[in-house]
Backbone:
């Protein structure tokens, strides 16, 4: 009755709450947030803007990945490679078969964190970072490191990039263009994004409070997460973690950075995802919201959820209270969390919530809860009105 | 199984006078860095808006409008944009101001406009278009990534019509100096480096052909890395997969850009697989940039529609007996090898 969907055979992740799937889960189960004070680089905002920072320096990442001395990996390329290693192991794909993989990567920062360090002199060996500013070059660096020889490309649609990468990967498998593909996203913290978001007055000086009436902005985060998707013939030979059964993308076409009051883009994306999964809104067990805790997003997303679910809003939460808003990585990180929820029959908390938004009165899941889940809807909305929703099914 | 994409409308804004979608009097490129030809952007965009728009955004917004006009379409069913370097001008402007002022003063507008998908977002805003919208940022294969998405859409739902697919790249005056420093840009009569340029190309694509159709796009493929001795096999396998013989290729459009270090890939094909085929090149007129393959595709469409190849684009002396099937091959600095297979509609 339900559409079968594309098999997920592996996953890997690194965020402020852990360097692996299991350490992320431990934090989510225990309710331990990863929001802290910026340490890895200096900014005038270090003390005022909390962030979801991965407490590994670039040198430490280089060492852990065993990179050669003259490499031109930027932080994003390193975080991504770290997470992809776990994903490939979890999918039991051998190194000799890496060349059969395609790679769809979502990133918005690309290598800008290194550009801002060395601009404009790019003195000495830093000259190698002149080209690493480009999102596509981050992807190329990772693909070359693993020797992925299948179709490789980069999607850059701000905060929905990771979700769009997963959507494209699923479509490539379903059309037969690819048999196996690594999909996901990465973004690292940078002065560029910290100052950018702050100048738009989107950042909070406290840990973010998604869907709370007194919410006042987001905390930026960094991270990387990847899924391995495989065609049925290949997937049936191994444990399948979950399936992607639906996806939808639409454009809000309202404003470059703000969402429409009626959440049109979000509403259409969720509608398309449900249609593509061939299920009704009543079949959704849980919603992982975009929930950035900006006054605008949470209001707009709430209206869209109300339009979709009417009186039947399922349990929902934003996990950004744990990780911060990881921009392009968000959709992929939340995909991994969705798979974990399906596998372990649980829901993770929407941290720091106290008072509902009066217009909708929605109360999210506020603590770790056991629940048998079948279909999860996950939302990611980005600048440029880009709205994407994904649906994951329990295998 | 596979469904082609019919190209039913298009536009090209470049270092040549290409805006009228016909063959033009070519202007030789004499500088190492060449911007697009002067274009009456204010006929398409209100002055207040235009003032704040980077080159990439104006090329995108106007390129999209021109292509839709050419196809006689008001609203596309999808907006798929590609860009190798994104909105470099606004990114660097924001970065520079932030660093200069030690983060004390930054320009939020420049930040918003620095995100790569701002072009696709602006196109959607201008049209009030809420359809599927995505942005590919993959160096010189960004148009190709967008076309592959379009091919997927037609395969998934043959009723998908009027997909607006395009690619844009702009020159940033500051960053281009860094490429010059790296030796990527030609200096004087040197044989390495390229003529750096900018431009945009948009294509309104559909599963259905009509009397306006320029061409049908049969397939696109991208390979990140190849050695020169692998390129012939890469092309043969692609053609075989699409059940097209070498003899069926009436013309091959190659991305030779005059850089002796990397043109070897093209020479391999010119001397082997396509030694007996009509060969075309275009980068001596479009310049080199991450969206140059849009110029290439535009050229192929013009050639198929007019059934002629102007001499300025000829790379050898072989004239095709007919113009039915054209293959496009491009790469940049040894990576992002792309193939596009085009045929009369």
Residues:
């Amino acid at each position: 009755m339900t559409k079968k969907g594309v098999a997920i055979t592996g996953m890997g992740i690194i965020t402020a709450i852990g360097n692996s799937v299991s350490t992320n889960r431990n934090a989510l189960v225990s309710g331990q947030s990863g929001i802290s004070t910026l340490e890895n680089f200096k900014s005038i905002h270090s003390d005022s803007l909390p962030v979801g920072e991965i407490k590994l320096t670039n040198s430490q990442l280089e060492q852990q990945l065993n990179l050669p001395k003259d490499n031109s990996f930027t932080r994003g390329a390193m975080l991504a490679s770290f997470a992809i290693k776990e994903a490939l192991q979890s999918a039991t794909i051998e190194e000799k078969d890496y060349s059969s993989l395609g790679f769809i990567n979502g990133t918005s920062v690309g290598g800008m964190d290194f550009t801002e360090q060395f601009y404009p002199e790019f003195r000495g060996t830093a000259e190698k970072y002149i080209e690493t500013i480009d999102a596509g070059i981050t992807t190329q660096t990772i693909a070359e490191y693993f020797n992925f020889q299948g179709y490789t490309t980069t999607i850059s649609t701000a905060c929905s990039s990771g979700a769009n990468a997963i959507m494209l990967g699923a479509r490539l498998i379903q059309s037969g263009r690819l048999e196996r593909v690594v999909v996901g996203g990465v973004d690292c913290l940078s002065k560029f994004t910290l100052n950018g978001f702050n100048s738009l007055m989107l950042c909070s000086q406290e840990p973010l409070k998604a869907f709370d009436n007194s919410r006042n902005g987001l905390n930026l985060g960094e991270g990387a997460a990847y899924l391995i998707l495989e065609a049925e013939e290949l997937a049936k030979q191994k444990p399948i973690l979950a399936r992607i059964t639906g996806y939808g993308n639409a454009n809000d076409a309202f404003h470059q950075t703000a969402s429409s009051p009626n959440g049109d883009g979000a509403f259409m994306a969720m509608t398309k995802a449900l249609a593509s999964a061939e299920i009704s809104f009543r079949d959704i067990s849980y919603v992982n919201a975009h929930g950035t805790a900006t006054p605008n997003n949470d209001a707009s997303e709430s209206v869209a959820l109300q339009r979709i679910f009417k009186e039947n809003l399922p349990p929902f939460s934003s996990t950004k209270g744990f990780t911060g808003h990881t921009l392009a990585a968000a959709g992929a990180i939340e995909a991994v969390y969705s798979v974990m929820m399906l596998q372990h029959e649980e829901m993770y908390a929407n941290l720091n919530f106290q008072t509902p938004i009066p217009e909708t009165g929605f109360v999210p899941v506020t603590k770790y809860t056991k629940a048998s889940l079948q279909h999860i809807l996950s939302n990611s909305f980005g600048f440029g009105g880009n709205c994407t929703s994904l649906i994951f099914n329990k295998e | 199984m596979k469904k082609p994409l019919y190209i039913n409308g298009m536009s090209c804004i470049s270092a040549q006078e290409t805006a009228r979608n016909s063959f033009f009097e070519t202007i030789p490129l004499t500088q190492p860095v060449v911007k697009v030809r002067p274009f009456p952007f204010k006929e398409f965009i209100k002055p207040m808006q235009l003032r704040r728009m980077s080159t990439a955004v104006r090329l995108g917004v106007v390129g999209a409008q021109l292509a839709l006009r050419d196809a006689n379409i008001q609203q596309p069913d999808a907006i798929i944009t590609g860009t190798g370097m994104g909105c470099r001008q606004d990114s660097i402007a924001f970065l520079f101001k932030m660093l200069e002022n030690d983060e004390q003063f930054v320009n939020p507008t420049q930040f918003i406009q620095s995100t790569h998908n701002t072009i696709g977002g602006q196109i959607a805003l201008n049209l009030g278009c809420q359809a599927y919208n995505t942005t590919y940022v993959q160096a010189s294969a960004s148009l190709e990534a967008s076309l592959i998405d379009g091919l997927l859409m037609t395969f998934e739902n043959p009723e998908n019509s009027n997909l607006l697919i395009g690619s844009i790249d702009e020159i940033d005056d500051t960053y281009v100096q860094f490429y010059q420093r790296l030796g990527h840009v030609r200096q004087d009569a040197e044989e390495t480096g390229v003529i750096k340029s900018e431009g945009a190309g948009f294509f309104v694509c559909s599963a259905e052909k009509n009397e306006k159709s320029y061409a049908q796009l049969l397939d696109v493929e991208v390979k990140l890395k190849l050695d020169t001795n692998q390129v012939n096999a890469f092309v043969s396998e692609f053609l075989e997969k699409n059940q097209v013989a070498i003899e069926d290729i009436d013309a091959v459009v190659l991305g030779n850009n005059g850089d002796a270090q990397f043109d070897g890939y093209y020479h391999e094909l010119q001397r082997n697989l396509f030694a007996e085929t009509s060969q075309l090149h275009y980068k001596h007129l479009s310049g080199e940039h991450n969206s140059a393959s849009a110029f290439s595709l535009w050229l192929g469409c013009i050639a198929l529609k007019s059934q002629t190849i102007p001499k300025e684009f000829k790379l050898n002396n072989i004239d095709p007996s007919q113009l039915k099937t054209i293959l496009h091959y491009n790469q940049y600095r040894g990576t992002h090898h792309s193939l596009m297979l085009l045929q009369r509609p």
User: Anything to note?
Assistant: Chain A has a mean pLDDT of 97. Chain A touches chain B through 65 residues (CB under 8 Å).
